[in-house]
Specification:
This protein is an alpha+beta fold. The chain contains 17 helices and 23 strands. The strands form six sheets. It has a seven-stranded mixed sheet, sandwiched between helices. It has a six-stranded mixed sheet with strand order 14-20-13-19-17-18. The relative contact order is 0.16.
Length: 596
């Protein structure tokens, strides 16, 4: 009993101290204009060379400006760090930078920074840069002149949508340490730079006084991470946050009718997919370091049976609340023109009888009559990974594994947050899961992710990959190389359509639905939200995220809204203390029962 009293007393002291600190900080924060955005996905890393999550790309969009930008209305190439460019042959481009560019720490930003980024990322094959810079060579004859030469025809040029890193910071990092570099120094050229990150809680970005567009109207952006999407919606309604990303489908219709809140279903090519681990020993990798899929998954017939067992219409109606469209092939761009139309004989329509027949014909039988088919005498049990940061992950799993059971395939379950799942998938320690992609404007980056070179083989860094299907198709790689250099738009689209159809028929990536990004924002504190693309796109987490530098506070902003960083920390820590005390009582009670 004495120990309990001491713990309670200590907790009260800590809470009082936190309260004083929070009030003091809140008083200074009241003088700042703070935008608070809620989401359910934390950063995987602030390191722009290695991050893979949408949340991380929002940070990169805000911290790192690019030589060229994309118009909010239609994704047209517009000036960024470079104010103009020209070329005589379409391969060698000369860019003229704006005058007086500076990094957020006051260091001059010059053409040498851009040339350094292009050349080093190409030589060291930085994960998030390769598809853009693989064929480029850059030089900086003076501070404002950048010359970029491509070894091949490049349909993406003159666009240079790459995140430029500060040479004076990054040149100190050895090549072997790049992918593991924490990158929390917060030196950037975009409208905001990272100032604080508390993993699992929030990250905070401060306005960059040297941003090339000029001083933005917001002093800070706080991204608050929620473990429960319904709690995020409640925080939006109460005014604790100003905007929310990844609003639950069930809550979205009601938000559409609420006064003072605008709900946005932003289309930018996003899709959900069921991935089947189809790695078949190509390219080779260390079998001691990497796991392998269930061997049945390396059989195309087995995967085709699973593809026929997925009722995409039911998933859209029951999991996505009707907000979406049943998927076909992968969506590589915000422009739907890049998605091919499948013929009836190419499409894996939902048909459980056909799925069962395929498995019967392929020799997967249930010899003991327990309802589960066998592979080499053992029941087929697939490892299903559930994402804890997605509210839809469990209902997806329930439907999908239910259909698998109907065709004689059993499942086990493991749960991971997104950061964990990236590494689990990199190790090959899974058989299937559902996740989603949001593509870029040009299809090349998304297409590049499924080359043989993007299969996970780096045992020193299990996050150094993109091809989570593990499929290595040399013909796909060949077609990728052709579209990568094709300047004729119609011919390039034909090549892309052939690639996507081929990838679809491999049945390792089953697109369950194309779906919009569901977002919502309050109207009482900020004005100037920008959809990208115009009319149909999201206002946050888009290709270049223009809302942040366009927003202006309304008259009511000074009345409060959102929570200061100190307020968020106080809530989190207070909750942690409460959990610790409750946990102590439970541990004590359980120990006593064991003794008795």
């Amino acid at each position: 009993m004495k120990l309990v009293k001491l713990l309670v007393a200590a907790a009260l002291v800590v809470l009082v101290a936190l309260g004083v600190s929070a009030v003091a900080t809140a008083q200074s924060d009241d003088e700042k204009v703070v935008l608070t955005v809620g989401l359910t996905q934390d950063l995987d890393t602030p390191n722009v060379t290695a991050g893979e999550l949408v949340s991380s790309y929002e940070l990169y969009n805000l911290q790192y400006a690019a030589p060229t930008d994309l118009a909010a209305d239609d994704f047209a190439i517009t000036p960024g760090l470079a104010e103009s460019w020209s070329s005589e042959d379409g391969r060698k481009w000369t860019y003229t930078l704006r005058e007086g560019l500076q990094w957020s720490d006051g260091t001059p930003l010059t053409a040498e920074d851009i040339a350094y980024t292009i050349n080093r990322s190409r030589d060291e094959e930085w994960l998030n840069y390769t598809s853009t810079v693989a064929n480029l060579e850059a030089e900086a004859p003076d501070a404002r002149t950048l010359i970029v030469t491509s070894k091949v025809n490049d349909p993406k040029l003159p666009g240079l949508s790459l995140y430029v890193v500060p040479k004076h910071v990054w040149e100190k990092i050895p090549a072997d340490d790049i992918s593991n570099y924490p990158a929390v120094e917060g030196v950037g050229s975009g409208p905001f730079t990272l100032s604080e990150w508390k993993k699992g809680q929030f990250w905070r970005m401060e306005a960059n006084p040297n941003y090339w567009r000029g001083q933005v109207a917001i002093d800070e952006v706080v991204f608050r991470v929620f473990r429960n999407a319904d709690a995020m919606v409640a925080a939006l309604r109460s005014g604790e946050i100003d905007a929310a990303h990844a609003v639950p489908e069930a809550a979205f219709p009601q938000l559409q009718t609420e006064e003072g809140i605008v709900a946005v279903a932003g289309e930018q090519g996003g899709f959900d997919y069921l991935v089947l681990n189809s790695y078949a020993d190509n390219p080779s990798r260390d079998t001691d370091a990497f796991d392998a899929p269930h061997p049945a998954l390396t059989d195309l017939k087995f995967r085709q049976a699973i593809a026929h067992a997925i009722d995409k219409e039911t998933l859209v109606e029951r999991v996505l609340e009707g907000i979406g469209t049943p998927g076909t092939t992968m969506s590589p761009s915000a422009n739907p023109a890049w998605i091919p139309e499948l013929t009836a004989d190419q499409d894996y329509e939902f048909d459980l009888a056909k799925a069962n027949q395929i498995l019967d014909d392929a020799g997967y039988t249930d010899s003991d009559g327990n309802g589960i088919r066998e592979y080499e005498g053992e029941d087929i049990v697939l490892r299903y990974a559930i994402r804890t940061e997605s509210k839809n992950s469990k209902p997806y799993a329930e439907f999908i594994t239910g259909w698998l059971k109907e065709i004689g395939i059993d499942s086990t379950f493991s749960s991971y947050d997104d950061g964990q799942l990236i590494e689990v998938a990199g190790k090959g320690d899974f058989d299937l899961y559902v996740w989603g992609w949001t593509p870029f404007v040009d299809p090349d980056p998304m297409l590049s992710y499924f080359q043989c070179s993007q299969v996970s083989v780096d045992k020193s860094d299990f996050s150094n990959y993109y091809n989570d299907s593990g499929i290595c198709d040399e013909e796909y790689d060949k077609l990728y190389g052709e579209q990568n250099t094709e300047l004729d738009l119609e011919k390039r689209q034909e090549l892309v359509h052939e690639m996507l159809t081929r990838f679809y028929t491999s049945a390792g990536y089953i697109v369950t639905a194309t779906s919009p990004d569901l977002q919502a924002y309050r109207t009482d504190r900020f004005a100037g939200w920008v959809k990208q693309p115009a009319e149909t796109g999201p206002v946050l987490f888009s290709n270049t995220s223009p809302s942040y530098w366009n927003l202006t506070p309304t008259a009511s902003t000074s009345d409060g809204g959102g929570l200061s960083t100190a307020g968020i920390v106080a809530i989190v820590v207070a909750g942690a203390i409460g959990v610790a005390l409750v946990g102590w009582f439970f541990v004590r009670r359980r120990s006593a029962e064991e003794r008795e």
